Amino acid sequence: MSRESQRFDVLVIGGGPAGIAAAVRAAECGVHVGIIDDNATLGGQIWRGESEDGCAEEAAKWQGRLRSSAVTAFCGRRVFHQPEAGVLLAEGADDLCQLSYRNLVLATGARERFLPFPGWTLPNVMGAGGLQAMVKSGLPIQGKHVVVAGTGPLLLAVAAYLRKNGAIIPIICEQASWGSLARFGVALLGEPGKIRQGLQLKRELAGVPLAANSWPLAAYGSQTLERVTILRSGKAETIPCDYLACGFHLVPNVELPLLLGCQIRGGYVQINEYQQTTMQGIFCAGEPTGIGGVELSLVEGEIAGLAAAGRAADARKLFGVRERARRFARILDRTFRLRTQLRRLPSPETLVCRCEDVSYSRLRAYSSWRAAKLQTRCGMGPCQGRICGPATQYLLQWNPDSVRPPVFPARVESLATPAGAPELEHTAVPGGLR
Ligand SMILES: Cc1cc2nc3c(=O)[nH]c(=O)nc-3n(C[C@H](O)[C@H](O)[C@H](O)COP(=O)(O)OP(=O)(O)OC[C@H]3O[C@@H](n4cnc5c(N)ncnc54)[C@H](O)[C@@H]3O)c2cc1C
Prior knowledge:
The radius of gyration is 22 Å and the shape is globular. Helix 1 (17-27) crosses helix 3, helix 1 packs parallel to helix 9 (293-308) and helix 9 (293-308) runs antiparallel to helix 11 (319-335). Strands 1, 2, 3, 4, 5, 6 and 19 form a seven-stranded mixed sheet that branches. Strands 8-15-9-10-11 form a five-stranded parallel sheet, covered by helices on one side. Strands 12-13-14 form a three-stranded antiparallel sheet, with no helix packed on it. By secondary structure, the protein is of the alpha/beta class. The protein has 15 helices and 21 strands. The chain has helices spanning 17-27, 44-47, 57-67, 128-136, 154-164, 178-187, 192-204, 255-259, 293-308, 312-316, 319-335, 360-363, 369-376, 388-396, 412-416, and strands at 2-13, 33-37, 72-75, 78-84, 87-91, 95-106, 110-112, 125-126, 146-151, 172-174, 210-211, 214-220, 227-232, 235-240, 243-248, 250-252, 264-265, 268-269, 282-284, 351-353, 358-359. Residues 13-19, 36-39, 44-46, 78-79, 107-112, 129, 132, 154, 157, 250, 253, 256, 286-287, 293-294, 297 line the site of flavin-adenine dinucleotide. Flavin-adenine dinucleotide is lined by residues 13-19, 36-39, 44-46, 78-79, 107-112, 129, 132, 154, 157, 250, 253, 256, 286-287, 293-294, 297.
């Protein structure tokens, strides 16, 4: 395994819109900048996998600025541990990087929230964004019937993408009520950009039924998914399909900020007006500070990058743009809040922790995430609670535990280096090793 070690004035973790904007703005100030992402290419959830020609105008603009800047990019490497203050370790397929920084920008994005229901572990029941990512990587979807369900604007974006690539979408089920969706529409009246996006989605999805007050009850199939039963405005209905693309909005990736000691408030990383976290020299931008779409991620990234490079006055000029983008985040949060009926989705036998095969009835015997973890191994498998953690938080109102290194599963070899070995009191749980 090869090793390398580099030092940066500003190091950015996460190569989505927030991370790219932070890296570009910091590098344009003349400081030495590195950016690292665990995927093969930069771009994050929204821009990754788009060919440069097919890139939206905004994406192409930022990718161009990144190319002409002096930013050092590390792709395919995941940051998993901080052996000492100001030093991070990142693991690649066959290497280990030790990256030191003066200032750090965390732009680790968000992931989909999954809620367990009977049949959700069947093959071809997938996250909505997950299925989109697989199609972007080459999964053939032409002629396949895909039911899209859950909540949030991502459902519409995914349905439109899949349809453009030849999928047949029999229905989009949105758990929010028609009233909430109507208020969402009215609240967006002052946002011409969002209205344009909405109208475009409406054109792309013409003829596809959108059912509000609707969600999946169960998925069925002998080897793989064959049909889905949905509750549509109070009535159960079964729909044959090849895929169920299902996600219940997004949850922020706060594990790395937590590991570095940053305070969390209301589930999000706490920041000041310059995007600085409660830890000196550590900034945070994009979805870990609030789920608000690509515009908010970009402007927060710009502010964080400028502030990390010592350009507070330039950062201040963007506060107004950020305030407008934050308004959209608040509207999203109100509209797509989960209804309490969804707590009844899992049956006693439904697996909630699919890594360690822990059923809902076993979990209900415990009163906290920690107790359940110790007694059942819930959250101790390869995903380290990234899927079942947010699900139990919603279903059972459990608070997630503190985070321990390694924050992602890592090779024993990487942990065994002098820099990589976690301190004794933080020894990684066995589920965190591979
Ligand atoms: C699955 C999914 C699909 C989406 N699809 C769309 C869409 O089609 N249209 C749309 O408008 N919006 C979409 N969104 C929402 C969109 O991602 C946001 O609006 C916005 O672009 C987020 O930007 P960001 O830079 O904050 O985060 P992201 O774009 O999520 O970028 C964060 C990056 O950090 C990386 N990362 C995290 N932790 C580490 C680590 N420890 N080490 C190294 N790298 C790390 C992640 O892999 C990711 O590449 C999607 C979101 C998700 C979760």
